Amino acid sequence: MDVAPDHTVAALHTDEPEVPGLNARETLQLRHIRLFGATGAVLMAIGALGAGAQPVLQNPTQGVRLLGVPARMPTTSLTIAMTGTVMVVLAWLLLGRFAIGRAHQNEPARRLSRSQLDRTLLLWILPLSVGPPMFSRDVYSYLAQSEITARGFNPYELGPNQALGLDHVLTRTVPTIWRDTPAPYGPFSLWIGKGIWAVTGDNIVAGIFLHRLLALGGVALIVWALPRVARRCGVAAVSALWLGAANPLLLFHLVSGVHNEALMIGLMLAGIELTMRSLESSEPMRGKSLAIFVGGCAIIALASTIKIPALIALGFVGMALARRWGANWRSLVASAAFLFAIAAAVTLLVSVVSGLGFGWIHTLGTANAVRSWMSLPTAIGVVTGFGGVLLGLGDHTTALLSLTRPIAAAVAAFIAIRMMVAVYAGRLQAVGALGVAVGAIVLLSPVVQPWYLLWAVVPLAAWATRPLFRFPAVALSTVVCVILMPSGKDEVPYVIIQAAIATVIVCGALILATRNLLPWRAESGAPEPAPAPTAYSGPS
């Protein structure tokens, strides 16, 4: 069926050609960039000893002669952590020159190899993997909700205060705002947490370590699936990994922040890769091909039992399947029924076997109690309400939010449906349409946390190559990463100001000191000869 091209394709996507690797000078610069970012990650881990999201009780560094020093110097610790944060972000931006490809006058662009990027990513992840949590205290909620589950209480009815008691060691570590709220996570997440609690008990440090291992497993799935999906979309693996996996948002919030989004996104992306492998195969969809497709759909459904947004991916997979089956109403209904059966079976199995039932469906809106500045409808409602107070009209913020949020939800639903239709018509690939739809849903939802942006950035990194997407994604990731406090809570204003001033001075000095080692400026003149082009192999 011939269809007109969608303007979204031209605006966001173009195939990336194979290009030569880096020359000797660029390789040396890459090593310096790698070391610069790794130094920043080490500084973040050190600063987190005093300025991170440390537990209220069972802090292993408290009273230790050397490791306990940062906690007694809050301004210095915050400065170290913020300096490291800026260094990692700057290193990531510099790495982008080699990941996207650098054109020199009349010569083609050159790009670093997959192995070079993998080594860089590993070196930046390691320090954050052993340091204290940063930027969020959600991991302590995971620990408390896991014990609630293990004790046989219903985590979808009781918060830590009611189930464990106010003086319990895990309740004390949970942020006050979440101590009386039920768990907003799916049964698979709490089921895994229950198993972790069975191993660690009330040992907070051990619990954090195992939850971080789980998050690293999710990151590993992202690193495995993202380049494979990207190559199916005609995008260079390293540019997709740079924007999706090496993104400081992922390093700071999924690795250091220990969020269960890591496993959710990893499973979702792995499921998309398997379904795309089957759908794009020239062989009939039966036997092994059908098993791969069903397995991919089941993995996506499993991801949705961690957090429900992953389920959206099945809608786009279903549209691609309907197109393969003939692109008519009959194929559409058959595809919807087929995927609904898979999702229902997986959800029922996890909900029943875990013993948690379906109470999680009623707690999905728990986080809406927070007024998030990154949420477009919430920001409009709050700013407009504040304007009414200034004009003497009274505070009507709540009424305005009840108006802006439903309108935003309707707009997001419209965009998502339109993207599904584009997949069904063959104008967009499923992963690209999914990224656009999820991006709209995230920005127009009532609550937006920084790591929610990865729901859209990671799949779009595998498809969208135009500056119209990449530039805003890079800019937003950069701004969000450098303005958040590593403690995961509000700091004393004068401490923030002092640390920010010191960070600017130190980072400015570092830029001056490395002006001849790192590519802070675009090079002029004839470059060194590049090595011969090396073709990268397709997904395996």
From TrEMBL:
<feature type="transmembrane region" description="Helical">
    <location>
        <begin position="468"/>
        <end position="485"/>
    </location>
</feature>
<comment type="similarity">
    <text>Belongs to the MptA/B family.</text>
</comment>
<feature type="transmembrane region" description="Helical">
    <location>
        <begin position="35"/>
        <end position="57"/>
    </location>
</feature>
<keyword id="KW-0808">Transferase</keyword>
<protein>
    <recommendedName>
        <fullName>Alpha-1,6-mannosyltransferase</fullName>
    </recommendedName>
</protein>
<keyword id="KW-1133">Transmembrane helix</keyword>
<feature type="transmembrane region" description="Helical">
    <location>
        <begin position="233"/>
        <end position="256"/>
    </location>
</feature>
<dbReference type="GO" id="GO:0016020">
    <property type="term" value="C:membrane"/>
</dbReference>
<feature type="transmembrane region" description="Helical">
    <location>
        <begin position="428"/>
        <end position="448"/>
    </location>
</feature>
<feature type="transmembrane region" description="Helical">
    <location>
        <begin position="492"/>
        <end position="513"/>
    </location>
</feature>
<feature type="transmembrane region" description="Helical">
    <location>
        <begin position="337"/>
        <end position="361"/>
    </location>
</feature>
<feature type="transmembrane region" description="Helical">
    <location>
        <begin position="77"/>
        <end position="96"/>
    </location>
</feature>
<feature type="transmembrane region" description="Helical">
    <location>
        <begin position="117"/>
        <end position="135"/>
    </location>
</feature>
<keyword id="KW-0812">Transmembrane</keyword>
<dbReference type="Pfam" id="PF26314">
    <property type="entry name" value="MptA_B_family"/>
</dbReference>
<dbReference type="InterPro" id="IPR049829">
    <property type="entry name" value="MptA/B-like"/>
</dbReference>
<feature type="transmembrane region" description="Helical">
    <location>
        <begin position="399"/>
        <end position="421"/>
    </location>
</feature>
<keyword id="KW-0328">Glycosyltransferase</keyword>
<feature type="transmembrane region" description="Helical">
    <location>
        <begin position="373"/>
        <end position="393"/>
    </location>
</feature>
<keyword id="KW-0472">Membrane</keyword>
<feature type="transmembrane region" description="Helical">
    <location>
        <begin position="291"/>
        <end position="317"/>
    </location>
</feature>
<dbReference type="GO" id="GO:0016757">
    <property type="term" value="F:glycosyltransferase activity"/>
</dbReference>
<feature type="transmembrane region" description="Helical">
    <location>
        <begin position="204"/>
        <end position="226"/>
    </location>
</feature>
